[in-house]
Amino acid sequence: MSTMFIVCFLYILTVFHVCKADENTNIQIPLMDNVKAPLFADLNLSNVTQQLKRVIQQEVKRSIQNRITDSGNCDRKIDAMEKTLQALVLNYTNTLNQLTPTVETIASANCQKPYQKIGNGCYFISNDKVSGNAAFASCTDPGAYLANFETLEEAMALTLFIQKQKTGIHYYVGGRNINRYLPNGDWRWIKNGKVTKMTYFAFAEGQPSGTAKDEQDCMFLYANNKYQFYDIECDKEIYYGGYICEK
To answer: What Cα–Cα distance (Å) separates residue 208 from each residue in 86, 148, 153, 168, 184?
Structure first.
């Protein structure tokens, strides 16, 4: 309504040419277009000026208040978002803590004979002497594969366990050279058909020693050197050994 009032007032000023009038000037506004007996209303410009000032002040005050209110709402929304995020993090942490024992229980339940839990892994150690390629095919249980050691901690735990057994048998594991034509080959862990790059140098000093002409594409824990990782010719009978399955 205040905007309409200002527009009407500007229209009146234009029609009756009172732009040069001062604040104390009274003007007459025709209320009815009657030539014989025109009806006028007196309008004091000083009152109009005061009304305009009040209208403008009210509009400015309202605009500022709206901005302040919006800013307050924004701050409240940010606070609410932060609290929601904190609640989500807390719920996630609690859920994770609740699930961890369950996952560990399930893992332990799946690690049943002839498999045994060593470190954080679940392994079956066979002393049957086979070739390297036969070792890959021997881990035929669902979900099983020739043992991978993606981390150094896994390798250390298994190596220490094997050392204590003192069987004197070499054991094939799931490392494989997939490109003997590269210098030192291209050694990967083979797990259920997937190939994973080794994240640490697993081999003993001077290993791997195979070449394109002297192919040594299988990997085993060598008993004669405290069960360190060696490369070996996969199907050479003198190197037949046991194998370690993982699941």
So the answer is: 51, 17, 21, 21, 6
Residues 6+ apart with CB under 8 A from 218: 132, 133, 135, 172, 175, 176, 177, 231, 232, 233, 234
Which residues in the chain belong to E strands, given as ranges?
A: 26-32, 39-44, 116-118, 121-130, 145-146, 171-177, 187-191, 194-197, 218-222, 228-232, 241-246
Backbone angles phi, psi at 27, to 5 degrees: -125, 160
Q: Which residues contact 185 (CB under 8 A, 6 or more apart)?
A: 177, 178, 179, 208, 210, 217, 231
Q: How far is C-alpha 15 from the chain's CA centre?
A: 69
pLDDT tens, position by position, 211-244: 999 999 999 999 999 999 999 999 999 999 999 9
